[in-house]
Design brief:
heterodimer, A: mainly beta, 3 helices, 12% helix, B: 81 residues, two-stranded antiparallel ribbon, elongated
Chain lengths: 189, 81
């Protein structure tokens, strides 16, 4: 499987993310900071990625850690700012409403156990499966985004948050240099 | 977005309702006898509590029924008005 990053061709593997493929190909840098253009590299292995932002076709500001590799993928690194493409967007966007007894957010071990144990109408969402729950409001009202195209407005009787945790970075001099990454990301890659 | 209990329809989203202002503001018995200041106070001056607020609401996008409720302005908890 071939992909192109910043004009260079690389070999990728089925099922890995763009960030994983870059790291495996020895590309630890390749990105720039927004204002001072300092070198940056893949820092995480998940949705918390601050550096590895790419533009793929008309889609700006995608996290390389969340982009699944496809054959012939062409990604351009972004320095904290995307590019609008003038061509008309023919994607259809819409909104759905859902009501449920239990909304479980996160499909890790706890979330899966909670969803199995829950009674009634259960809605089980996880961003890694395409639907990110992005907001919680009064009276168990939640907003979720499905594949960036469909907004879900959800009213639940109960909500279980099983979102896991994001590693807090160690603070030390030059911890922003390419090649430095979270321990979790190092382990993953 | 909070849930508001309509006495006819049950709990519905806040966006289905319109706010009707503070409850229990009586129309003056003899409006002509009021001074300008008293009339202005009747028209424009309302309580602005931190805590329990007695309010009128109307289920404008539903059954159109008017009703009263008590809403806590800090916690959004709703009781009977």
């Amino acid at each position: 499987m071939k992909f192109t990053f910043a004009g260079t061709d690389y070999e990728g593997r089925e099922g890995e993310t763009l960030a994983a493929a870059l790291v495996r190909n020895g590309v630890l840098g390749g990105f720039r900071s927004l204002y001072r253009r300092r070198p940056r590299g893949v820092y995480t292995a998940g949705e918390e990625e601050p550096n590895a932002l790419v533009q793929i076709g008309a889609k700006p500001m995608l996290r390389a850690t969340l982009v699944e590799l496809e054959d012939g993928l062409v990604a351009e690194p972004l320095a904290g700012k995307g590019r609008l493409v003038a061509a008309a967007d023919d994607t259809r966007y819409d909104t759905m409403h859902a009501h449920c007894d239990v909304l479980v957010v996160g499909a890790g071990r706890s979330g899966t156990a909670a969803a199995e144990a829950a009674a009634g109408r259960v809605l089980h969402l996880d961003g890694r499966q395409g639907t990110w729950v992005v907001g919680l409001y009064d009276d168990n009202y939640a907003i979720a985004v499905e594949h960036g195209r469909r907004l879900w407005r959800i009213r639940a009787k109960r909500i279980v948050l099983a979102t896991g945790a994001i590693e807090r970075p160690e603070i030390f001099p030059d911890n922003d240099l390419p090649g430095t990454m979270l321990a979790v990301a190092f382990e993953r890659y | 977005m909070i849930l508001i209990p309509c006495p006819w329809c049950g709990e519905r989203d806040e966006t289905e309702f319109s706010y009707g202002g503070q409850a229990g503001v009586p129309y003056p018995a003899d409006p002509a006898a009021l001074t300008d200041e008293e009339w202005a106070r009747f028209l424009f001056f309302r309580a602005n509590p931190r805590g329990a607020s007695h309010e009128r609401w109307v289920h404008i996008h539903g059954c159109r029924r008017w009703f009263g409720l008590t809403r806590d302005t800090v916690t959004h908890r709703i009781g009977d008005g």
